[in-house]
Amino acid sequence: MRDSIVIIPTYNEIGNIEAIIRAVFSQKKDFNILVVDDNSPDLTALKVKELQTEFPDRLFLEVRQGKSGLGTAYIHGFKWCLRHNYEYIFEMDADFSHNPTDLERLYNACAADGADLSIGSRYVTGVNVVNWPMNRVLMSYMASKYVRVITGMKIHDTTAGFVCYKRKVLETINLDKIKFVGYAFQIEMKFKAYLKDFKINEVPVIFTDRTKGESKLSSGIISEAIFGVISMKIKSIFK
């Protein structure tokens, strides 16, 4: 059995899903894929089902009833992967903002270099972002700086969504207690791992903005991150 699986959450990603699945399966290392689809109106899940006939032992699909947020999609995926005994569990976007060729580098950071959690980092060696407008680059960069100051984590890209977890990290974190569902979900997961003293490595990657489909980022998601981080830090102090 393959030891690694990539969770790809989707909502209206029909323009990207087949290409990203084939790109992941074309890597030298064998990865399985779990697509967690929030009942996309554009029939993303139907395309995945078609591809399952070609990749029956590598491609898996979970369809949820509606659009419930990134965080809950990943929690659903984490629990599925733990039940199926994967050792290395990845988060990855469907839109090619995360390059599939970097998957093996994240894997090696955990499997060979001893990290418990590896992060595909946009900011550990400067600012490695392509095709984003300057205001969005600044917002993302300053958000990570802000989170680093508030939480004390020594992580440059605290909001990164390109991550590899060893299963023991996800087994140790109480996934039912994860509060945030949007942008702040990525911060909360890293903070929980940091509080448990897991070893976290950042692997420099180049982040490229999507060329197909629409971004799911909204002002509400950003507000959740800004105010949620303070609340999260205060609760950790009293605990």
Q: How is this structure best described in words?
A:
- This protein is an alpha/beta fold and 239 residues long.
- Helices cover 41% and strands 17% of the residues.
- It has 8 helices and 9 strands.
- It has helices at residues 17-25, 44-52, 70-83, 103-111, 134-151, 167-172, 183-195, 219-238, and strands spanning 4-10, 32-37, 59-63, 88-91, 117-121, 129-130, 163-166, 200-204, 207-208.
- The protein has a 7-stranded mixed beta sheet with strand order 3-2-1-4-7-5-8, sandwiched between helices. A two-stranded parallel sheet has the order 6-9.
- Helix 1 (17-25) links the parallel strand 1 and strand 2 (32-37).
- The longest helix has 20 residues, at 219-238.
What percentage of residues falls in helices of 4 or more residues? 40-55%
Q: What is the 3D form?
A: globular
The secondary-structure element order is EHEHEHEHEEHEHHEEH
Q: Uncertain regions: pLDDT < 50 for 5+ in a row?
A: none
- Please report which band the strand proportion falls in: under 5%, 5-15%, 15-25%, 25-35%, 35-45% or over 45%: 15-25%
Mean pLDDT: 91
Q: What topology, given as strand order, has the largest sheet?
A: 3-2-1-4-7-5-8
Described by strand count, sense and barrel closure, the largest sheet is:
7 strands, mixed
Number of helices: 8
Number of E-type strands: 9
Distance between the termini: 40 Å
* Alpha-carbon Rg, integer: 17 Å
Broad structural category:
alpha/beta
